[in-house]
Specification:
The chain is mostly helical. It folds into two domains: 91 residues, no CATH class; 61 residues, no CATH class. The chain contains nine helices and no strands.
Length: 197
C-alpha cells in the first residue's frame, strides 16, 4: 500500500486538474437559436451561435437553409423560391434530415406552395379540430356522443362556444323552466350551469 502511495504522490503534485472548457450548449438550445430571429437573440447567444457555426460547417449550412425558409414564409415568396430551396437541399449530402423533409414537401408541393404564398390559412380549423380531439381523449370510455357534444359546445377555448368571450348566449325570454342552458348536465370536472334569472 505504501509503495503505491509513494508511486502516485509525484503524479498528484505535478498534474493539476485542467481548466474546464466552456459548456457545450444542448441540442435543444442550439435549435432554439437557429429558429429564433437573429435580432431577438441576446448578444451572448449570438456569440455562442457564431462560435458553433464556425466550428461545424453542417450547422452553418443548416442555419442558411432555415433562414431562407423563414424568409420564404414571412415574405410569402414560396411560388418563386421553394423550387430552388428544395433543389439546394437535395443536392446537399450533409443534411439527410432536410432531404427527408424535401421529399415530404415534394409529395404535396402544390399545397406547400399555396401555404407559403397565399394569405389564407386553415390554422383556425386545424386548431379547433385539435381541441375537439383533446376533449374526446379526455372522455375516452366515459360516455357517449351526447356528453361529448355538450362538452364541445361549452368548451371555453373553442370559437363560437357558449362560454367563449366572443359569443355570450343568454337564455331566451321564455321563462326559467324552459331555458335550454339549465337542462345541460356535465361531468364533475365541468361546472354546472345555473338557471337564468
Amino acid at each position: 500500500m505504501k509503495t503505491v502511495r509513494r508511486y502516485v504522490a509525484p503524479f498528484r503534485q505535478a498534474l493539476a486538474a485542467p481548466e474546464p472548457g466552456p459548456a457545450v450548449p444542448k441540442t435543444r438550445q442550439i435549435t432554439r437559436w437557429l429558429l429564433t430571429r437573429p435580432d431577438r437573440l441576446r448578444p451572448q447567444e449570438q456569440e455562442q451561435l457564431g462560435q458553433i457555426t464556425e466550428r461545424c460547417p453542417h450547422i452553418q449550412a443548416l442555419a442558411g437553409y432555415v433562414t431562407s425558409f423563414a424568409e420564404m414564409m414571412t415574405g410569402r415568396t414560396g411560388s418563386q423560391d421553394l423550387e430552388a430551396w428544395l433543389t439546394a437541399i437535395e443536392a446537399d449530402d450533409g443534411q439527410p434530415d432536410l432531404r427527408s423533409l424535401a421529399t415530404g414537401i415534394r409529395n404535396d408541393q402544390q399545397a406547400v406552395i399555396n401555404g407559403l404564398t397565399l394569405p389564407w390559412s386553415s390554422g383556425k380549423v386545424e386548431g379547433t379540430a385539435s381541441k375537439i380531439k383533446m376533449i374526446k381523449r379526455q372522455m375516452y370510455g366515459r360516455a357517449g356522443f351526447g356528453l361529448l357534444r355538450k362538452r364541445v359546445i361549452l368548451h371555453p377555448a373553442l370559437p363560437g362556444s357558449q362560454n367563449s368571450r366572443k359569443s355570450q348566449i343568454s337564455c331566451p325570454p321564455t321563462g326559467k323552466s324552459r331555458c335550454p342552458l339549465t337542462q345541460l348536465q356535465l361531468t364533475r370536472t365541468a361546472p354546472r350551469l345555473t338557471p337564468c334569472r
